[in-house]
Structures are given as C-alpha cells and as structure tokens.
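Memo to structure team: turn this sequence into structure tokens by end of day. - J.P.
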Amino acid sequence: MKKNILLILTVFGALLFSNCKKSKNDDLNNISYGTSFGMCGGYCSQSILISDSKLSFSKSKNGAVPDTKTCSKSISEAEVNSIKDLLNTNQISNLPEVIGCPDCADGGAEWVSVTVNGKKYKITYDFGKPPKELEAAVAKLKVLKDGFKDCN
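Reply from structure team:
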C-alpha cells in the first residue's frame, strides 16, 4: 500500500513539475516591430520580423512608389528567447490596439506585433512612448532594427 501511494505521488509530482519547464511564451510564433512617419522624406517606414531563427528587416518610402528595401540575417535562439521572455502574452492581449494618437501631427508611430497560437496582437502607440508592458522588449527590438542601418 505504501509503495502504491509513493508511486502515485512520484508520478503526480513529475507531471506537475514537467509543466513548469515550459516557457509561458512557447507558442509565441512571430514577433515584429516597426516605426512609421506619415510626413517625411526618405524611408519613412521600417520594420523587423523575427520568425524562427531569421531576422528580416524592411524599409519603404511613402508615396506611390514605396521603393522597399529588405535585408535579413540569422538570429540565435538565445536572442529570440530573451525577447520572448520580455513579452508577456497575457498582458499584450489585454492592451488596446491603439494607445495615444500615433503619428498625429507627424509625431511618428511605433508598433509591436506578436502571433500567439495563430492569433495576432498588434499594439500601435506614439513614437518613443511604449506602454510599460512593452518597454524592455521594445528596447531590445530597437537595437536589432538599428543593426540594419547599412541595408541598402
């Protein structure tokens, strides 16, 4: 009888703790970040997309001929996981789609978009004013975007 109870407790404990190892964001598939300015010259819209181990960057001009430029490079799993760890999908899903007045009076807009379990969440906000739930992730995403300054 004692052996059965011990066996049941061991199996229960193993099942309980096996769920703890799974990251809260394991189902976060794509992460993208971008900026845009409605009234500007040059490349007014820039964005990055992180998908699997690939980091893609694109920039485009406003107007009838966007003249889009794209570049890509690999990104380590550790870098991707560090960004995922900063993105609390429960908090993101509770944020409004638009915060403030993005790009009003040409102040610019920023956005973060994530796809979780096939559902896309995109939060757009005033340039330079991310909501506190996104501040740390945005700081890392900006560094990645700025790494493409030579993309021509």
